[in-house]
Amino acid sequence: MKFIKYIMPILLILLSISCSDENGIEDPVNEVQDLLKVQEFTNSTHIVELFTESGMLSLGYNNITLRITDITSGDFVENALITWKPIMHMTMMTHSCPKSDVSKVINKQTIYGGYIVFQMPENNDEGWDLTIDYTIEGNEYEVEGDISVPNSDKQIVTVFTGADEIKYILALIEPQNPEVKVNDMTVGLYKMENMMSFPVVENYTIKLDPRMPSMGNHSSPNNEDLTFNALTDMYDGKLSLTMTGYWKLNLMLYNSGAELLKGEEVTETNESSSLFLELEF
Amino acid sequence: MNRILFIFIIFLSLDGIAQEQLTDSTKIVDLDEVIVISREELNNQRQVKPLSSIDEYLEKSSKITMIKRGNYAWEPAINNMVSERLSVTIDGMQIFGACTDKMDPITSYVDVSNLSEVHVKSGQQGSENGSTIGGGIDLKIQKNDFDRESWNFGIDGGYETNGNSKIVSSEFNFSNNKFFFNADGIYRKSDNYYAGGGIEVMNSQFNKFNISTVAGFKTGEKGSVIGSFIYDKATDVGYPALPMDVSLAEALITSISYQLKDISSFINDWDTKIYYNTITHIMDDTKRPNVPIHMDMPGWSDTFGFYSKIQAKKSNHNFLFNANAYYNKSLAEMTMYPNDPDENIMFMLTWPDVRTTYAGIYGEDIINLKKNQSLKVSARLGFQMEHIASEFGLNSLQIFYPGLDDYNNRFLISLAAQYDISVSNFDILLSTGYGERAPSVSESYGFYLYNSFDNFDYIGNPYLQNEKSIELNTSVNYTVKKFKIGIEASFFHIFDYIIGEIDPQLTPMTIGANGVKIYTSLDYANIFTTNLSASYDFLTNLNLFGAVGYNLGQDNNGENLPLIGPLNYRLALHYKKNFFDAEINMNGAAEQTNYSIEYGENMTEAYTVFNINASYNFYFGNNKLFVKAGVENIFDTYYSTYADWNNIPRLGRNIFINLSYVLK
What we know:
- The complex is a heterodimer of chains A (281) and B (664).
- With 281 residues, chain A is mainly β.
- Chain A folds into two domains: 32-147, Immunoglobulin-like (Sandwich); 157-280, Immunoglobulin-like, CATH 2.60.40.
- In chain A, 8% of the residues lie in helices and 46% in strands.
- Chain A has one helix and 19 strands.
- Chain A has one helix spanning 2-23; strands spanning 36-42, 46-52, 60-70, 81-89, 94-95, 103-104, 111-118, 127-136, 139-147, 157-161, 167-174, 182-191, 205-212, 218-219, 224-229, 234-240, 246-254, 260-262, 276-280.
- By secondary structure, chain B is mostly beta strands.
- Chain B has one domain (2-663): Maltoporin, Chain A.
- Chain B has a 22-stranded antiparallel β-barrel. In chain B, strands 1-6-7-4-5 form a five-stranded mixed β-sheet, with no helix packed on it.
- In chain B, 48% of the residues are buried.
- Chains A and B meet through strand 14 of A and strand 19 and helix 3 of B.
């Protein structure tokens, strides 16, 4: 089973590549048709557009698509090498956040993708900006601008210090659209190396115990703890939701030596873990 | 097992206990029983009150006990087996309750105004209309025959002091040799009733009305078309034994049939019917104080079906063939409203839109071997397909059963043989049978169904095997002049007996529940029931009737099964002269010692209650006024029986009067 679990995504990717080869090239203009534009950044040579599914950036995990247009020719740039740097400007300091590399979206002509995990929201005095550096045929360019990351009423990302005194960031990635079923669950786990570096934490395990506080802390069966997936650099598990409503996903983080770093068992007397994420649907 | 056999032998060896009975039949006990309800017969029947609910009529049967969750919609049990193990039909029509908590047995959707008789059959004798383990109940709709031209109009009223209960009903009947028409309506309203000692049982009120019409016309010398329509609506029904009440229980039951009579010397009767019924059932807790969380629990059940039944006769063979099929859709939802109004509502499907398609054939032959012997053999073969139509529901169940298929097929077989012999004053009947039943929708597909009896949430199990039963029955009747005595006994050995088993891994959904049970199959369970009845005519007008019943049910570990009745008894002294009729009776039960702790039962105390009633028929020309009055639970005893859900007490003292006026 494990073998299939890891090999399946690869097979699917291969399959989709081979299919599209047969089907020919899509109309490039339509490559963002399922996405909504968040905003665009402009310099003297290019327009860089930012897309997400919701048309907004939000606290926690954001899957972001970029597209670069050459102002002079009006063409989309298909061969850029891109890096990005989100920065939080706090009153006393600045810091970045966990993020992926930006890479060309597989099987697409004009769009680039990656993710950013905003671990704190903006407020009146503090806010985020994003710098995008890109190279086209050896020439370097940069755009920069403020971005808006409003707060969320549910805890979809959490920053905490483990028993090992390391600061971690844990973000809910999936399910984005939870249903009453066994949902595939994915979280990202990052550690704060310094203010600007937040690498992926590998090979830990995260114990999962979803609960409904409004229903006397009802839990669900057949959940699977989250384990590291080296293919995606994320943690995958299974989340059973027996009904709609508000769910508190109680978590316990163990390092690769099976030492508990954060979180407590939910019991009759302990209603929830100090490490948790939330969802409501 | 040994204990069961021992008791069986003791009962068989008992004789010479003097008691008495009223009906003209020579048999005092019978595995097949007919309860007469028809208003036409309003007088000589052993009925407590003509405007009794159908539940009270059924409770008079020695075969049936009624499980009570309140003062309304009692659930019938035959041989200590309830709904899932019974085949309950209305004139052969399949109809399924829409409540996940069994608050609406089929019998709650008809009333005495609709019915002429109830046929009660034990075990596989009851498999004519569907698969069963415990037996069959067929409720016969009242209708006229094509007869000489006549009409009548009746109006009935009843009042009962306990619960301030009011009943009015009216009916109109017309018939001639080409056409007949019956229409009736009944309305019942009751406030909370009072248990013995004047203790008010909160949330025990109900309101109900029922209207029905049946009409038929002859299409030729042999053929006729008959249509029937029943609409039943209950509102504001309290269930004191449960955490929720019912704001609406509504049924529409319709059918149209084509009948051919005396087709040939071989075929006597050919009856083909198509039918449709739809039920809406809405549970409600808005009138309950202090609920941990408010919830709505509506359920729907729609059934389409048909049957075609042929009765035929050749020399000493009497055949009955019945081909039937139905399609049922059962859907139930639960919506819970969090105490924090900003939180989203919590929604689940408790019945995942299950579509059940059943098709089966039944055949029986009653062979008159000699003048005093007969043999009856019967068989039913059925195919059942279940489909989970809701993707939401399928996904929900896949939480428990990953990879669950949305289709499931089953074959169901029933076989029975019965031998009857009369020798001098004895009438002896022996029967045996094998039967199978499919798990019910709740047992297969229920999702967090709360059972207040054991305080557990139940999860269905789609992989359950069919439940299978081997049964042995016997009845012996002895009649000599004014004395009759009879004993009947049934023994069921049930394989793959379906029951809930605690899964300690699961946490309940219902706030405050003890845990979660998953339906599972025990290797086997044994159920034994026996009943001894006797009657004696002291004088022409005075008779004494007595009956004693005993039941035992155990699982494969020798543990008691739940809802098995203790030793119970009845004694009645009945006087009848001309138009006057009076009865005093006593009934009760011994302490329930064989209760099941595991399934949430506790010991039920012994009790005895006394009732008295009298009736008189006044004639004014063609018109008739029937008056019946009486007192139930004369000494206002506070008691509950083993069949009272969560030990809710039964009715305290109740004085009733029923009046029926018939104009012709």
